[in-house]
Every structure is written in C-alpha cells, then in structure tokens.
Amino acid sequence: MNGFCVECGITTNQTVNGLCMPCFLKDRTLVTLPDHVDLFTCTSCGQFLRRGEYESMAPEKAISMAAKNALTCIREGKVVKTTTSIEPRDDYNYAVTVACKVAISDFEADAAASTIVRVKNTVCKICSRRTGNYYEAILQVRTSEKTLSSKLQDEVLKKVEDFVDDAATTNPNAFITKMEIVPGGVDVYLSMIALGRELTKALGDNYCAQVDESNKLVGQTRDGIDMYRVSYLVRLPEFHVGDIVRYGKKYYLLTRVANTGGKIRSLNNFADMTVRRANMPELKVYAKSSELETADVISISRGEIQVMDPQNYSVKDILVPKDAVIGETVTVVRIDGVLYYVPL
What we know:
The protein has four domains: 19-121, no CATH class; 133-230; 238-290, SH3 type barrels (Roll), CATH 2.30.30; 292-344. It contains five helices and 27 strands. It has helices at residues 21-25, 59-69, 125-131, 150-168, 193-207; strands spanning 3-4, 11-12, 15-16, 19-20, 31-32, 36-42, 48-50, 53-55, 72-73, 78-88, 93-104, 107-122, 137-143, 176-182, 185-190, 210-220, 226-236, 244-247, 250-258, 261-266, 272-276, 284-287, 293-301, 304-308, 315-319, 329-335, 338-341. The strands form eight sheets. The chain has a five-stranded mixed sheet, covered by helices on one side.
C-alpha cells in the first residue's frame, strides 16, 4: 500500500517520519563533527591514542581516523562509506573534511562535515614506565662459581634480550628497565612479574639451573590491592657446554644441556651418552672450555694422530674418531699427564 508525504502530498512507498525522501533531506544536516578533535601522540614512541589504547600508525591515518571517530550521524541514517581530505594548518593543526555516504532505508545520500584535528603531545603509559625506571621483577643470574665469566655473561644476557624482544612483539608492556653487573652475576630489572616468571623457567630449563623466587610488598593500588615486587634467582651450574666433566670415574666432553638433562661424549671411545636432569648435579667439572690446550698436528692416520705436546714439545700419539676432520691443530685436554683429543 502506497503512502504519501505529509509535507508535499506526493504518493510514495518510501517515507521517513512521514516525509518523502526529498522533503526529508531538504535543509537537513545528516552528519556533524565537533569544532575540533584532539589527537594525542606519545613523544617517545610516536604512537597515537585511539579508543583508549596507543597504536602505531602513519600520522595521516591517525588524523583521518580521529576525525571519522568523532563523526555523528542522524538516528534515521547510517554511515556506510567515508573518505577524508586533510589540509595542514601547521605542524599541530589539520583541517579535515569527511565526505560520507549515508544510508537511509534503501536510499543513499551524500553528506560531509569538517573539523580541526589538533595533535597534542603526551607520553604513553609504557614509555612513562620506561623512563621512570618502572619494574615489577628482578631476575638475578648467579653462578655456582665465584664469578660469572664474561663469555657466559654475554651469552645469558643475549638470551634474556632475545626472550624479551620476542615477548614484546605481542605485549608492548614487556621490556627491560635496566641491567646491572653485580658481584657474582647480573641483575635484570623487568617490567612484568609474568615476564620474570617465564624467563626464569626458560633459563632454568636451558642451563639445568637452580631457580627460586621471593616477593616483597611495596605498596597498594588505588583500589587497595597489594603490590609486590618479585625477585627471581637463577643459579647457573658449574658446568657448561664445552667443559670437560667427570661422570662416575670417566671423563667426557659436555656437548649439550637442556631442560631434560644433558649429553656427554666419551674421551676414550667418543661415544655419546645421555644424562637425565636428576643426575646432572653428578657432573664434576675437570677443565673449563677456556682451559683446554691446543696442540700442533704432526701426522694423521685412521683413528690416530701424532701431536706435539704444547708443554714439553714431545711427540704424543692420541686417539681420534675415525671420521674426524683434522686440521693443523687440535684441541686437547691433559688428564693425569696424558693428552686426550677433545671432539668439539
């Protein structure tokens, strides 16, 4: 059944509030924008605030979205398409016009509105915490020895940095506040308790290390919730990959350490052996990797080589794996006065 327009009297099957579409649209403002819209950007990381969260985006996109998010439409219509044009006034003020397609029933009408987007500098929560030395957890890396070697220190810190960088790809709240070299190890200040917990487990598994944690009450939130800082201890074992260890009454090269245990290689027959994690404390370091010697190779035969003893320059015969690739020098270890080839 056809209706009619109460304004002009035309017969029509499409009315809005009793008006035909031409009468409804006549002198009617379909979309509006406020006189100005504020767009906040972090001066440290350059991200823009959008709907309560800071996001990385091009300035032009952020300015356009700020204007479009402030757009309001009449209740009878719905904005189905927008395009924006931006005209800079200066470095902080931009004139933005938003052109729209507004759907009203089965009809689409063109509309437009303009505003001034004002870009304002601020500091996001994460950057504020970074610059303010904010931290929730301390990762304390120590060793069973008196000092943490520079090589191992660099290796551990590289693992820590890689772990945090990976976590930050999905959680921007994950960051390292600072690192400190302390007697016997390093302290790493972390932004999140959960980050410290995950990192502690990863290092503990990677090195078969002893781990522990303790917490300290540091205050309360505005909601009255207790706030804690947690200290995580990772005590690295004396042994590390590349060391010569004694297991039982025999000597081995430690070739692998993982969360399930380790692998060792015999210096007598070069056979590999798996050591369960529960038995890893039984490994006793005989020589650190930095203490191993280098010997000049004199001659090579299958399964055996002659080398010059680096201490007294005498010629010694030592066993090597039959498939070993021997160069001009080899790494050796001295056990009870006898040289053994180290199958690195």
